Automatic annotation (TrEMBL):
This is Hexokinase-3. It comes from Jaculus jaculus (Lesser Egyptian jerboa). Residues 239-472, 680-914 form the Hexokinase C-terminal domain. Keywords: Allosteric enzyme, ATP-binding, Glycolysis, Kinase, Nucleotide-binding, Repeat, Transferase. GO terms for molecular function: ATP binding; D-glucose binding; fructokinase activity; glucokinase activity; mannokinase activity. Belongs to the hexokinase family. It catalyses: a D-hexose + ATP = a D-hexose 6-phosphate + ADP + H(+); D-glucose + ATP = D-glucose 6-phosphate + ADP + H(+); D-fructose + ATP = D-fructose 6-phosphate + ADP + H(+). The gene is Hk3. Gene3D superfamilies: 3.30.420.40, 3.40.367.20. One of its GO terms (cellular component) is mitochondrion.
C-alpha cells in the first residue's frame, strides 16, 4: 500500500476536482492532528447503536432468519455444557490461527476432580508467510510436521493420541469433529480449504505424515477453548472473549433458541463471529477513512470490517496510516516520511502497546519511531501516543459494545434482568495492551449496568479448555464406537439377506415335501382368490392380532360392507383355559349379534385364527402351538373349530354355522385379492409375523392333486427354530427369546414383529447404560420393566417429522432422565432394530415371490402382496424398507404391496362365501 489511496478524502485534504466555493477550509497541523484523533472518538449513543444493532443481527441469525451474508453468523459449536471438571486424561492440542502466523502444540493432562493441576507442555511454531497464503495442503502438512516434531520430544510410545484442534476461523460445525471453513480471516488465505472439513484435512495430513497415531476427536473455536479453560474457582465462565490478531466471542445460549439445532433443552455454546459485523447503519458513523484504506489494502476487502477496527493484526496498521497521513500533511515529523512509515504492516501491535506503556511509553515511542526511520520531536511523540490511545480506546470501546450485546442476549435468552456472568478473556491485545482491558470493563459497565460481569483472564490461551472439549468429545466418540459395535450385528448386508432368502427357499421346499423344516408350509384348503361373484351375509371372527374383532360382512354386487366390534382378550383369558377362551369368544359373538340385531340368525361364519394350524379341511384346523403371548390350555393339538362349536353348544340358544377357519395371512390375501386379482401372497407384520401364498398344488405333497393352486400358510414366524438363523441372532435376541413364554420358538418372528422389537430395544438400552454410554451410566428403574418399551415407540421415535425434543418427551414420559445425545442414540437403536426387522421380512417376501416366479417358469413375475399388521402400517419406514429389500433380492419380480383396509375378517368372510358358493354348486 503506497500513499493513502486517492479514493477517499482524509482530514485537511481536498479533492482537486471540487469547485473553489465549497472546499473545506485548510487545517493547520495541530488542528489536523485533532481532526484525526476526533475521528476515532465513538460516542456513547454510537456504542449503544452498535450494541442494539449487533443484538438484532445475533437474534435474527439465531432464528436462521439472517439474509445470505449474515452480519454475524452465530455458529453452533456442539459444546453443550460448560466443564464439570470430571474430564481426565492426556490430550494433544493444536492451536492454529489464534495468534497470527504461528501455531502451538500442547500436551495437556487433565486430572479430573483430583484437585492438582499438571502444567501443559507446549511448543510454538512460526508459520512461514508463503504457507499462510499458499496451498491448504501445505498448511496442514506443516501442522502435521509440527505435531510430529513436538511429539518427538515427548514420552509418547505408540499409544493412540487424542487431539483437540483449536481452529480460530469461522466454521460451519455439524458435530464436535466435523467443521467446514466458511472463509479465512486475519491474513490467512490458503487455497483449497474454504468449504472443506478442516478436521478431515488435518487427519489426511497426519495420515500422510504417518509418524504418530493421532485421532482428531474435536475441533473448537479459540473463544470456546478460552471459555472452557476458565478456572473453575470463579464458577464456570459462560462467555469466551478473544482479542488477539482477530476478535470474536462465544457464549452459552439456550439450545431452544438456536434454530439450526433440533434441541429444546439445555444450553449450547454459540460462536458469534462478530468480526464480520457490518451494519452500515451502525458502523458507518464510526468508520474512518483510515479504516477504509486499511480494508482496501487487506487480503479480504469488505470482510471482517468490525474485526479490522479491534483486532491486534490491524491496530498497528491503523496507527501507521494515521501517522503517515499526518506526516504527509506536515502535521508530524516536520512533514517527513520514510519508506518504513509508508510501508504497510511496519507498525505492529506490540509497538503500539509499548508506546502506550503508562511508564515508559514516551521512551518506547521514540524507539519505535526511529525504528520506522523518522525522527520525532517531543510534540510528535506526544501526538503519536495520543493516536495510539485513540485507535486502541476505540477498539476497546467497540469491543465493549459488542460484549454488551452478548450480555443483553444472555439476559433475553435467560429472561433475567440482572445477570451475573463470568467472561473468560484471552488474546495478545488483552495481555499486552495496558489499558484495553480497563476501557473495555468500564464501557461494559456503562452499556450493561444491570450485568455483574467478572473477567477471568485465560491462563494458557485456552489450551486446557480445548483439552476439556477434547475429553468430552473423546468420551462421546468412545460412546459412539460402543454404540456402533453394539448395533453392528443389526446391519445386515446384501450377502447376509441373500443367505436368509436362500435358506428360507430351501426350508419352503422341504416343508412342502413334508421333510424336516422350520417352515411348516400348511395347506389352507383355499384354492382360489375371490372372483367377485361371491354374495351373501357372513359373520367373521378375527382373533390373534392386537384386537379381537367380531364382524358382519355383507357381500353384494356393489361390494363389501363391514360392521365390526372390537373386544379385548384379557391376558388371563389368553393364558387361561381353552374353554374359558372360547366361551369368551362366544360371549363376544352373542354381544355383537344383540348389538347388530342379528340374534337368532345363523349366518355362515369365517374364523380368522392367527396361529399355526394344521388344516384338514376348510373348517378343520388343529392348533399346533400357541404364539404371540397366547397360551390357553387344552387347545394345542385340538381342532379349534370344534372348540368353538363346543363353546357355542355350551351357550345354548345360539346358532352359528362355522364354515371356514383361515389364518390372518390368508384372510388378508383374500381381502386384497377381492380388489386386485394379482394378489397371491398375504403378509402380516403386526404382533406376530407370517406369510401365505398361492403354491402350485403339484408341489404340495400332503394334498392330493397336481393341477391348480393351494394357498399355503408358511408360518414363517418359526423360521430359524432349527438354528438356521443362529449367525444373525444377537445376545439381545437370545435374552428376549429366553424371557418369552415360548423360548426357542418363533425365532424369525422374535426378530421382526411388534411383540418383540420394543423388548430388543429395551435390552440394548440396558446394555448401553451399563457401559456408561447412555443416561450417564445410571440404570433407569423404568427400563427394568418387561415390555415397558412398546414397539409403537419405535414408530414414533423414528418418525422423520418428530424433532429430537419430541423423542425426548416420549422417553421422559417413560421416566428416563436423558440428554439430547441420549435421545439421538436411542433413536439410532430403534432404527437399527426396526431396519433389521424390515430387511429380514423383505428377504422372506423375496424368497416367496421368486418361488412363485420359478413355479410358473416366468422371466418376470408381476404379483401383489396383501399386507396387514400394526407394525407394517404404523412404522414410518418399515414398508419402504421391505419393498427396497425385495427389489434388491428379487429383481425379476414386480411386487406391489396392498395395505388391507378391512383386516382379514373380510377375507375370512370371502373364504366362507367361496366355500358356500362351491358347496351350492356341488349340491346343484
Ligand atoms: C389385522 C387383521 C388381523 C391380524 C392383524 C395383525 O388386524 O385383521 O387378522 O391378525 O392385523 O396385526 P396386529 O398388529 O394387530 O397384530
Ligand atoms: C475468527 C474467529 C476467531 C477470532 C479470534 C476471527 O478472525 O473469525 O473464529 O475466534 O478471529 O481468533
Ligand atoms: C402366528 C401366525 C400369524 C402371525 C401373524 C404368528 O405368531 O403363528 O399364524 O399369522 O402370528 O398374526
Amino acid at each position: 500500500m503506497d500513499t493513502i489511496g486517492a479514493t477517499c478524502l482524509l482530514p485537511g485534504e481536498r479533492a482537486l476536482a471540487c469547485p473553489q466555493e465549497n472546499r473545506p477550509p485548510l487545517l493547520d497541523s495541530s488542528e489536523l492532528g485533532q481532526e484525526c484523533l476526533k475521528q476515532f472518538e465513538v460516542t456513547r449513543s454510537q456504542l449503544q447503536q452498535i450494541q442494539v444493532s449487533l443484538l438484532g443481527c445475533m437474534e435474527r441469525a439465531l432464528k436462521g432468519k439472517a439474509d445470505s451474508a449474515p452480519a454475524v453468523r452465530m455458529l453452533p459449536t456442539y459444546v453443550g455444557s460448560v466443564p464439570h471438571g470430571t474430564e481426565k486424561g492426556d490430550f494433544l492440542v493444536l492451536e492454529l490461527g489464534a495468534t497470527g502466523a504461528s501455531l502451538r502444540v500442547l500436551w495437556v493432562t487433565l486430572t479430573g476432580t483430583e484437585g492438582y493441576k499438571v502444567e501443559p507442555r507446549s511448543q510454538e511454531f512460526v508459520i512461514p508467510q508463503d504457507v499462510v497464503v499458499g496451498a491448504g495442503q501445505q498448511l496442514f502438512d506443516f501442522a502435521a510436521h509440527c505435531l510430529s516434531e513436538f511429539l518427538d520430544a515427548q514420552p509418547v510410545g505408540n499409544q493412540p493420541l487424542q487431539l483437540g484442534f483449536s481452529f480460530s476461523f469461522p466454521c460451519h460445525q455439524t458435530s464436535l469433529d466435523r467443521s467446514t471453513l466458511i472463509s479465512w480471516t486475519k491474513g490467512f488465505k490458503c487455497s483449497g480449504v474454504e468449504g472443506q472439513d478442516v478436521v478431515q484435512l488435518l487427519r489426511d495430513a497426519i495420515q500422510r505424515k504417518g509418524t504418530y497415531n493421532i485421532d482428531v476427536v474435536a475441533v473448537v473455536n479459540d473463544t470456546v477453548g478460552t471459555m472452557m479453560g476458565c478456572e473453575l474457582g470463579a464458577g464456570p465462565c459462560e462467555v469466551g472473549l478473544i482479542v488477539d490478531t482477530g476478535t470474536n466471542a462465544c457464549y452459552m445460549e439456550e439450545a431452544r433458541h438456536v434454530a439450526a439445532l433440533d434441541e429444546d433443552r439445555g444450553r449450547t455454546c454459540v460462536s458469534v463471529e462478530w468480526g464480520s459485523f457490518s451494519d452500515d447503519g451502525a458502523l458507518a458513523p464510526v468508520l474512518t477513512t483510515f479504516d477504509h484504506v486499511l480494508d482496501q489494502g487487506s487480503l479480504n476487502p469488505g470482510a471482517q470490517r468490525f474485526e479490522k477496527m479491534i483486532g491486534g493484526l490491524y491496530l498497528g496498521e491503523l496507527v501507521r496510516l494515521v501517522l503517515a497521513h499526518l506526516a504527509q500533511h506536515g502535521a508530524l515529523f516536520g512533514g517527513h516520511t520514510s519508506p518504513a512509515l509508508l510501508s504497510p504492516g511496519s507498525l505492529l501491535l506490540e509497538h503500539v502497546a509499548e508506546m502506550e506503556d503508562p511508564c515508559n511509553g514516551a521512551a518506547h515511542t521514540h524507539t519505535v519511531l526511529q525504528g520506522l526511520g523518522v525522527s520525532p520531536d517531543a510534540s510528535d511523540a506526544e501526538l503519536v501516543q495520543r493516536v495510539c490511545a485513540a485507535v486502541c480506546s476505540r477498539a476497546a470501546r467497540l469491543c465493549a459494545a459488542a460484549l454488551a450485546a452478548v450480555l443483553a442476549r444472555l439476559q433475553h435468552s435467560r429472561e433475567q434482568r440482572a445477570l451475573q456472568v463470568a467472561v473468560a478473556t484471552g488474546g495478545q491485545v488483552f495481555e499486552r495492551h495496558p489499558r484495553f482491558h480497563n476501557i473495555l470493563k468500564e464501557t461494559v459497565m456503562h452499556l450493561a449496568p444491570e450485568c455483574e460481569v467478572s473477567f477471568i483472564p485465560s491462563v494458557d490461551g485456552g489450551g486446557r479448555g480445548v483439552a476439556m472439549v477434547t475429553a468430552v468429545a473423546a468420551r462421546l466418540a468412545a460412546h459412539r464406537q460402543l454404540l456402533e459395535e453394539t448395533l453392528a450385528p443389526f446391519q445386515l448386508n446384501h450377502e447376509q439377506l441373500g443367505a436368509v432368502q436362500a435358506q428360507m427357499r430351501e426350508a419352503m421346499v422341504r416343508g412342502l415335501r413334508g421333510e424336516a423344516s422350520s417352515l411348516r408350509m400348511l395347506p389352507t384348503y383355499v384354492r382360489a382368490t375371490p372372483d367377485g361373484s361371491e354374495r351373501g351375509d357372513f359373520l367373521a371372527l378375527d382373533l390373534g392380532g392386537t384386537n379381537f374383532r367380531v364382524l358382519v360382512v355383507h357381500v353384494t354386487e356393489g361390494g363389501v360392507q363391514i360392521t365390526n366390534q372390537v373386544y379385548s382378550i384379557p391376558e388371563g383369558v389368553a393364558q387361561g383355559s381353552g374353554q374359558q377362551l372360547f366361551d369368551h369368544i362366544v360371549d363376544c359373538i352373542v354381544d355383537f349379534q344383540q348389538r347388530q340385531g342379528l340374534s337368532g340368525q345363523s349366518l355362515p361364519l369365517g374364523f380368522t385364527f392367527s396361529f399355526p394350524c394344521k388344516q384338514l379341511g376348510l373348517d378343520q384346523g388343529i392348533l399346533l402351538n400357541w404364539t404371540k403371548g397366547f397360551n390357553a390350555s387344552d387347545c394345542e393339538g385340538q381342532d379349534v373349530v370344534c372348540l368353538l362349536r363346543e363353546a357355542i353348544r355350551r351357550r345354548q340358544a345360539v346358532e352359528l354355522n362355522v364354515v371356514a377357519i383361515v389364518n390372518d395371512t390368508v384372510g388378508t390375501m383374500m381381502s386384497c385379492g377381492y380388489e386386485d386379482p394379482r394378489c397371491e401372497m398375504g403378509l402380516i407384520v403386526g404382533t406376530g409375523t407370517n406369510a401365505c401364498y398361492m403354491e402350485e398344488l403339484r408341489n404340495v405333497t400332503s394334498v392330493a392333486g397336481d393341477s391348480g393352486h393351494m394357498c399355503i400358510n408358511m408360518e414363517w414366524g418359526a423360521f430359524g427354530d432349527d438354528g438356521s438363523l443362529g449367525l444373525l441372532s444377537t445376545c439381545f435376541d437370545a435374552i428376549v427369546d429366553q424371557a418369552s413364554i415360548n423360548p426357542g420358538k418363533q425365532r424369525f418372528e422374535k426378530m421382526i414383529s411388534g411383540m418383540y422389537l420394543g423388548e430388543i430395544v429395551r435390552h440394548i438400552l440396558l446394555h448401553l447404560t451399563s457401559c456408561g454410554v447412555l443416561f450417564r451410566g445410571r440404570q433407569a428403574q423404568c427400563l427394568q420393566t418387561k415390555d415397558i418399551f412398546k414397539t409403537k415407540f419405535l414408530s414414533e421415535i423414528e418418525s422423520d417429522s418428530l424433532a429430537l425434543r419430541q423423542v425426548r418427551a416420549i422417553l421422559e414420559d417413560l421416566g428416563l432422565l436423558l440428554t439430547s445425545d441420549d435421545a439421538l442414540m436411542v433413536r439410532e437403536v430403534c432404527q437399527a432394530v426396526s431396519r433389521r426387522a424390515a430387511r429380514l421380512c423383505g428377504a422372506g417376501v423375496a424368497a416367496v415371490v421368486e418361488k412363485i416366479r420359478e413355479n410358473r417358469g416366468l422371466e418376470v413375475l408381476t404379483v401383489s402382496v396383501g399386507v396387514d399388521g400394526t407394525l407394517y402400517k404404523m412404522h414410518p419406514h418399515f414398508s419402504s424398507l421391505v419393498a427396497t429389500t425385495v427389489r434388491e433380492l428379487a429383481p425379476r419380480c414386480a411386487v406391489s404391496f396392498l395395505q388391507s383396509e378391512d383386516g382379514s375378517g373380510k377375507g375370512a368372510a370371502l373364504v366362507t362365501a367361496v366355500a358356500c358358493r362351491l358347496a351350492q354348486t356341488a349340491q346343484v
